[in-house]
TrEMBL record:
Lineage of the organism: Bacteria, Bacillati, Bacillota, Bacilli, Lactobacillales
PTM description: An intermediate of this reaction is the autophosphorylated ppk in which a phosphate is covalently linked to a histidine residue through a N-P bond.
Gene Ontology cellular component annotations, sorted alphabetically: polyphosphate kinase complex
Record-stated family: Belongs to the polyphosphate kinase 1 (PPK1) family.
GO molecular function, a single term: ATP binding
Organism of this sequence: Lactovum miscens
Identification of the protein by name: Polyphosphate kinase
Length: 700
């Protein structure tokens, strides 16, 4: 036991804390917004992504740390040995630094947007009389009737505010000189538009919460307003079935509906506010009433959420848009597929590997559409984790069921923040006669699987790294394999059988299936490379993923590095392993790519020589939750052309010197400096799509 502990402690300098690493990732998102080379409106989008990411981080990860502090304040991170308080202190300090940069970047972007004639009115801007009268009437007749004001008194305690609800708060003074606190919740966005444009210049606008702030004295007319601000409460969303609801209701769909409701009732973890002047009394009151420390208050010089930017787009002149946005890119049709032909026959003849968003998801959508009508098809099974609204994929499943085919759909109701959509989706499918399952108690079904079974016992399988979602397929980089390989398809069938039986796959020769098999098989694959290195042979591992946190796998990477295995990791987000540490990770290189598209594919390659190299694509990241707490699937890639395509994708990502940052031996990320030839991997993959099976030569 002591030896194990010593070995763990010996590797502490090769690990970094998960929360710190996540903040570094969001910093890389912020750097995209800071970059003048990014089109102006796209910079605004990156600011929106940064804020949304940060809010979710506080709701989930900081919320979890807050709960842990209540349970055991001596608990330590098992990688870096940081206590909960140490982690929280770092998170709050780092967040404050990032928000300062965020505020500065927003001011820069806002100035740029003004040059295009779209002007967010500031408090110092003077308005024409007709504009002032227009805003007054909008407030009086359209907004004020929708506001329910609250004044905190002895008989009226602090009201409850839902997560992310935007509120105008005021410190009030009575005629007797006493303080009261008044609150004006901003009306539901479904009832009122977020931006209000001026009649004198439709390019000028004010946000609805700013208008309410301006006219707050007309609501609290019996008081003097001492100070006022706009704020929102971010609440702990660290919820799972162990919260007690799962045992309360045997119907899991109803259970998740209750969890969605309770999520908004969870304890506050952070308050964001926007104020022109100091508001000490209001902040003190909110801190006391919500049991928060001052360190949990963060001041923004920006709107408190960025959903309004979609309403801005129509304000820009069409001629300006090429300067404001990334160039329009249309995905090519799935290479290797004639979508107008018989897709089942084509896939039966040859495997097809599709790379999103550079190739369209239409090939997969059309395959399912054809299967729904095809008389040869007897059964369709599918996993759905996040589906788009008005999904053609869901329409095809419903159509297949109505045409008498047996359709089974495993809907994951616990897909974080998508539960409401998935509850509605499962109800829609059930009403159409689809056999809807909700996965396994305690284990999310995160695998991306489609299985089409024919009357001649042949099977067509689709195994992907990303969700079957037409919307995200335009913005996320993912890969998917369409195959009629009998061995792979049979094992996919076994995954569905096990899920329906509420059991786990315990044996598979080809697929790597969690929670029982994937982790151990990955360790074995790394061990194979270690043995090659020990024998004096070339050994290499290249892995692309979203996150790397699983300690046993990281320790195995360290061992492989010490034996001389060359390891290159492309990790977009959280990465708890530090490369280049003398004697430990000297043979490991780690880079992150953050660009126009969200890097989402998981590709694992083992071996230095092409002829013996092993390729896998996976739904799982290298995280404990994925490898031991979820149903995930990785498939081998046997087809020669598909393997070449994966090799080309990885080679292009490893050559990126525009969107890539590399982690150094101190755990810090630095942008890769562009050489004589600038290589933007996402642009190369998009432009070279039709030639993807050939060697890609980036353009100067």
């Amino acid at each position: 036991m002591q030896n194990t502990q010593d070995a763990q402690d010996a590797n502490v300098d090769a690990f970094t804390n998960r929360e710190l690493s996540w903040l570094q990732f969001n910093e890389r998102v912020l750097e995209e917004a800071e970059s003048p080379s990014i089109p102006t409106f796209e910079r605004l989008r990156f600011l929106s992504i940064f804020m949304g990411n940060l809010d979710e981080f506080f709701r989930v990860r900081v919320g979890m740390l807050g709960d842990q502090l209540l349970l055991d304040d001596d608990w330590k991170d098992n990688q870096t040995k940081m206590t909960v308080n140490q982690q929280l202190n770092y998170v709050f300090r780092a967040t404050r630094r990032l928000i300062k940069r965020f505020n500065e970047t927003y001011q820069q972007v806002n100035k740029e947007i003004r040059k295009y004639g779209v002007i967010h009115i500031e408090s110092t801007d003077k308005l024409e009389k007709k504009d002032e009268e227009y805003l007054r009437r909008i407030f009086k007749f359209k907004i004020a009737p929708l506001i329910t004001p609250f004044i905190v008194e002895k008989k009226h305690p602090m009201p409850f505010f839902e997560n992310d609800q935007i509120i105008v708060g005021c410190t009030l003074i009575t005629k007797n000189g006493n303080n009261r606190f008044g609150f004006l919740p901003v009306p539901n966005p479904n009832k009122v538009e977020r931006i209000i444009c001026l009649p004198s210049n439709p390019g000028k606008f004010i946000l609805v919460e700013e208008l309410i702030l301006f006219y707050a004295d007309r609501v609290f007319h019996k008081f003097t307003i001492e100070d006022k601000m706009i704020f929102s409460v971010v609440r702990n969303a660290d919820i799972d079935e162990d919260d007690g609801l799962y045992d309360y209701d045997p119907n899991f769909s109803d259970t998740m509906a209750k969890i969605v409701e309770v999520r908004n009732l969870r304890a506050p973890i952070m308050i964001k506010y926007q104020a022109n002047d100091a508001v000490p009394k209001l902040i003190n009151y909110l801190a006391r009433s919500n049991y928060l420390f001052k360190r949990q208050f963060f001041e923004y010089l920006t709107p408190l959420e960025f959903n309004y930017i979609s309403e801005l787009e129509p304000l820009f002149d069409k001629k300006m848009k090429p300067k404001l946005y990334f160039p329009i890119r249309k995905p090519v049709k799935s290479l290797g597929l004639d979508e107008n032909g018989d897709l089942i026959n084509q896939i039966s003849s040859k495997d097809v590997l599709v790379s999103y968003p550079f190739e369209s998801i239409s090939g997969m959508v059309n395959l399912l559409h054809q299967a729904a009508k095809d008389e040869r098809v007897t059964e369709i099974s599918m996993t759905l984790y996040r589906a788009s609204k008005h999904s053609k994929i869901v329409e095809s499943l419903i159509k297949a069921s109505k045409l008498g085919k047996k359709v089974t759909c495993i809907v994951e109701l616990r897909a974080r923040f998508d539960e409401e959509n998935n509850i509605e989706l499962s109800d829609q499918l059930s009403k159409a006669g689809v056999n809807v399952l909700y996965g396994l108690p305690g284990y999310k079904v995160h695998s991306k699987l489609l299985l089409i079974e024919l009357s001649n016992n042949q099977k067509i399988a689709l195994i992907g790294t990303g969700n079957f979602n037409e919307t995200t397929a335009r913005f996320y980089t993912d890969v998917a394999l369409m195959t009629a390989n009998a061995d792979i398809a049979s094992e996919v069938k076994q995954v569905f059988i096990n899920i329906q039986a509420e059991s786990f796959v315990q044996q598979a020769e080809h697929l790597l299936v969690s929670p029982l098999l994937m982790k151990q098989r990955l360790i074995e694959l790394i061990d194979e490379e270690i043995e090659k290195a020990k024998s004096g042979l070339s050994a290499r591992i290249v892995m692309k993923m979203n996150s790397l946190t699983e300690k046993d796998l990281m320790k195995k990477f360290i061992e492989a590095s010490q034996e001389g295995v060359k390891i290159e990791l492309i990790v977009r987000g959280i990465c708890c392993l530090i490369p280049g540490v003398p004697g430990k990770t000297e043979n490991i290189k780690i880079r992150s790519i953050v660009g126009r598209y969200l890097e989402h594919s998981r590709i694992f390659v083992f071996g230095a020589k092409e002829e013996s190299r092993k390729y896998y694509i996976s739904s799982a990241d290298i995280m404990t939750r994925n490898l031991t707490g979820r149903v995930e699937v990785a498939t081998p890639i046997y087809d020669k052309d598909a393997r070449k395509k994966l090799a080309w994708i990885l080679k292009t990502c490893l050559a990126d010197n525009v969107n890539a940052s590399e982690q150094n031996s101190k755990g810090k990320y630095k942008h890769v400096k562009a050489g004589k030839v600038a290589i933007d991997s996402q642009s190369v993959l998009a432009e070279m799509g039709p030639k993807s099976e050939k060697e890609a030569k980036p353009k100067k």
